[in-house]
Design a protein that fits this description.
single chain; alpha/beta; Aspartate Aminotransferase, domain 1; Aspartate Aminotransferase, domain 2; 2 domains; seven-stranded mixed beta sheet; four-stranded mixed beta sheet; binds pyridoxal-5'-phosphate
C-alpha cells in the first residue's frame, strides 16, 4: 500500500509557529502524535466518515473531530435544516425560537432532564454544574476523580500546571475511579463540606486503558450522594449521544442530578448543554452565567436535528455494532501476527492498546502505520465511531490494519 506524505501540512505548521503559540495548541497539538511524521496537521475537506488533508490524502476518520462528528460530516438531513436557519438568523438581539424546541427535545429524550441550559463548550457546562452544586448546597468542595478530564478551566487542572495556582484547586478533592472506600473516606474527612461529585459515566483517561464501572458502583455512589446531600454531576461531554441517547446513566442504572453534554450533540456545530432535575432548577436559575455566542440559532438547529437523526436512525445501536465488528476484525488480525491488541471502553469510543510492549512504542508504530495508509488512528486517546462509518470503511480499515501489522512485524 502506498504511504502518505505531508509536505503542505508541514509547511503550514512552520508558518503557524511564527504567529500562533505552539502552532497548533490544545487537544489538536501534534505533541502526543508519535511519531509525528505519520500525521497530517491541516484538513481541507470532509464528507461522511472521511476527511481529506491539505496534501490531498484521504482518511477514514476514527477521531471524528475528537468526538463532535457523530452522524457524518456534511450530513444532508442536519445541514439542510442548518442552512435554512442560517438564511433566517443566527446570532441576534434576542433568543431564537429553536432554543425552546431544543430544550423540549432534550427533556423528552434524556431521562433525568426536566430542563436544559445551553452554552458553547463542554467546559462551560462542567463549570456551571459546579457553581449550581455550590449554590444548591451552600457548600464549597467538589470531588473530581483522578484521570478524569472536564476541560481546561483552572479548577480542572493540576495545581502544578503552568498558569495554575494552588488556590484554584483549593476546594477540589481528587478521588479514585471505581473506589467506594475512597469516596467514603473523603466524605468522612469533609463531613457536610462537599457540594458535588463530578465524574464521567465510565473512566476514559488518555494514555491508559479505559474502565467500565464495577457492578453496583454507580448505585452505591448515588445512594451515598443522596444520603450526604451531594449533587451528583455526570460529565457526558465525550460519551453523550454515543452510549445511550437517554443518558449513559440509563445503561449503568442510576440517576444523577445534572448531566453535561457537548461534542456529539450537534454533529460538529458549537454548542453544549447542562440538563438537570427539577430539585435543582431554582438553584441553577440563581447562578448568573452567559456568553456572547450562547444564543446563536444555527448550532441549536443542528443539535435538534442531530438528536432527532440519531433517534430515527438507531444511531447508538449502529455505532455499537460497527465498533464491535471493528474490534473483532482488528483483534483477529493482531492475533494473526502474534500480537495482543487489548480493547477497553465502549465500542462506540474504544481505546486500543498493543500490550506486548509496555512502553507503547509498538502500539504507536502500528497506529502510525495505519494512519500513513489512510485509517486515522491515535495511540493515546480513545477513538470515535460515527453512524457514517460503513461496511466499505470497515473492509478498507481491516486491509490497512493488516498491511500495517505486516510492516510492524518486519520492522521489529
Ligand atoms: C469528558 C470531557 N469533559 C469536558 C471536556 C471539555 O470540553 P470542551 O473542550 O468542549 O470545553 C472534554 C473535552 O474533551 C471531555 O472529554
Amino acid at each position: 500500500m502506498k504511504k502518505y506524505s505531508y509536505k503542505k501540512s508541514n509547511e503550514l505548521f512552520e508558518r503557524a509557529v511564527e504567529v500562533i503559540p505552539n502552532g497548533i495548541y490544545g487537544h489538536f497539538s501534534p505533541a502526543p502524535l508519535v511519531p509525528v511524521s505519520a500525521y497530517p496537521f491541516y484538513i481541507e475537506s470532509a464528507e461522511g466518515s472521511h476527511f481529506t488533508d491539505v496534501d490531498g490524502n484521504e482518511f477514514i476518520d476514527y477521531m471524528c473531530g475528537y468526538g463532535p462528528m457523530v452522524a457524518g460530516y456534511k450530513n444532508k438531513t442536519i445541514d439542510k435544516a442548518v442552512f435554512e436557519q442560517y438564511q433566517k438568523v443566527d446570532t441576534v438581539t434576542g433568543a431564537p425560537e429553536v432554543m425552546v424546541d431544543l430544550a423540549e427535545e432534550m427533556v423528552k429524550t434524556i431521562s433525568i432532564a426536566d430542563w436544559a441550559f445551553f452554552a458553547k463548550n463542554g467546559n462551560d457546562v462542567t463549570s456551571y454544574a459546579l457553581m449550581a452544586a455550590r449554590e444548591h448546597t451552600q457548600r464549597k468542595k467538589i470531588i473530581r476523580l483522578k484521570g478524569g478530564y472536564h476541560g481546561v478551566h483552572p479548577w480542572t487542572q493540576s495545581p502544578d500546571h503552568p498558569g495554575i495556582i494552588f488556590d484554584d484547586a483549593k476546594n477540589i478533592i481528587l478521588g479514585k475511579w471505581n473506589d467506594i472506600d475512597d469516596l467514603k473516606r473523603i466524605i468522612k474527612e469533609h463531613k457536610n463540606e462537599i457540594a458535588g461529585l463530578i465524574s464521567t459515566p465510565y473512566h476514559h483517561p488518555i494514555f491508559f486503558d479505559n474502565e467500565m464501572p464495577h457492578e453496583g458502583y454507580w448505585q452505591e455512589v448515588e445512594k451515598i450522594c443522596r444520603k450526604e446531600g451531594i449533587v451528583l454531576i455526570i460529565d457526558e461531554v465525550r460519551t453523550g449521544f454515543r452510549i445511550d441517547e437517554r443518558g449513559a446513566n440509563e445503561t449503568f442504572g442510576f440517576k444523577p442530578d445534572l448531566i453535561c453534554f457537548s461534542k456529539a450533540m450537534a454533529n460538529g456545530y458549537p454548542i453544549s448543554a447542562l440538563v438537570g432535575t427539577n430539585e435543582i432548577k431554582s438553584s441553577v436559575s440563581k447562578v448568573f452565567y452567559t456568553g456572547s455566542f450562547w444564543f446563536s440559532a444555527v448550532p441549536m438547529v443542528a443539535s435538534l436535528e442531530t438528536i432527532k437523526y440519531l433517534k430515527a436512525n438507531k444511531g447508538v445501536e449502529k455505532m455499537h455494532d460497527y465498533g464491535k465488528k471493528m474490534e473483532k476484525g482488528l483483534v483477529d488480525l493482531a492475533n494473526k501476527y502474534g500480537y495482543d491488541l487489548k480493547v477497553s471502553g465502549h465500542p462506540a469510543m474504544p481505546f486500543y492498546r498493543i500490550t506486548d510492549d509496555p512502553t507503547t512504542k509498538l502500539h504507536q508504530q502500528w497506529c502510525a502505520e495505519c494512519t500513513l495508509r489512510g485509517a486515522y488512528f491515535t495511540s493515546h486517546h480513545n477513538w470515535f465511531v460515527s453512524t457514517a462509518h460503513s461496511e466499505k470503511d470497515l473492509k478498507l480499515t481491516l486491509e490497512i490494519a493488516d498491511d500495517a501489522f505486516n510492516a510492524l512485524k518486519k520492522n521489529n
